[in-house]
Amino acid sequence: MPLADSQPPPLKIGFAYDSRAEWLALGYSAEQCAEFDTDATIDAIATSLKKLGTVQMIGGLKSLTKLLATSKPDWDIVFNICEGSSSGPSRSVGIPSTFSDSATLSLCLDKAKTKMVLEHYGIPTAAFACIPARNTWPMDFCPLSVIERTIHRDALGSFPLFVKPSAEGTGMGITQANKVVNREQLLNVVEDLSQRYPTQTILVERFLAGREFTVGIVGTGTEAFATGVLEHAFKKEKFDSPNDPTGDAVYLDVFGYDLKPKGVADVALKSWRLLECRDGGRVDIRHDTNDANAAA
Predict the structure, then answer these.
(1) Per-residue DSSP letters for 67-122?
(2) pLDDT of residue 211
(3) What is this structure's pTM?
């Protein structure tokens, strides 16, 4: 029988990631690379993984696919933080990998469809309307007609509202102008975003004026649990964009990780399980007001 304090054997880990510096060198813009990781972040994760065994630095999805196609890696697991891509290729050859599968990623990378699923299951989410991708509009299409026909038309009938592309993250496509306070501003922002992101749904939501949180979660299914709740506060009321390629964030983390307020963690965990997320990640939540009984 192994001793109670015996250590598990070291792992052979393949580490897949998207380096921001490498994508910038290929000619992509700072905005297009905003979701990719800095070399400092990649190195810090690799250092932690080395405590568990040996680490092979793979790079992005293309590098992972090439390695699998041209060799027979003996990794015990692939630790994958590539943006928007699952480790399906490694799983297909019998190598376990971390984090959510392709189905969950495809859903969660589309904010509009994610909101539809959460609303169906009774998870609180801001009233919304989905303006279809501009490249599908007929000649006489009026974008605001979608809002007038939605089941949320009453809630969206007054301002302020918030408008954003459905498939971007890290503040991409977001500036102070996305919060609109009248019909003219709404039309202008929808026009601008649909021109810049012609293949994406444009999401129009009730503006949520309350507190903002990030909930860290570890685990899968019923075994998932919240590691803590982090509250964010903006350093200044007005900013040009939360997507700052220099790395100087425009918000302050005002509370460390704990489990208060508990209601936030409960909503995050329910969402995590319903969306079938795996292993580890986060859920972002914003309250509708600053009241004590505010809804996420």
Answers:
(1) HHHHS----SEEEE--TT--SHHHHHTT--B-S--HHHHHHHT-HHHHHHHHHHTT
(2) 85
(3) 0.84
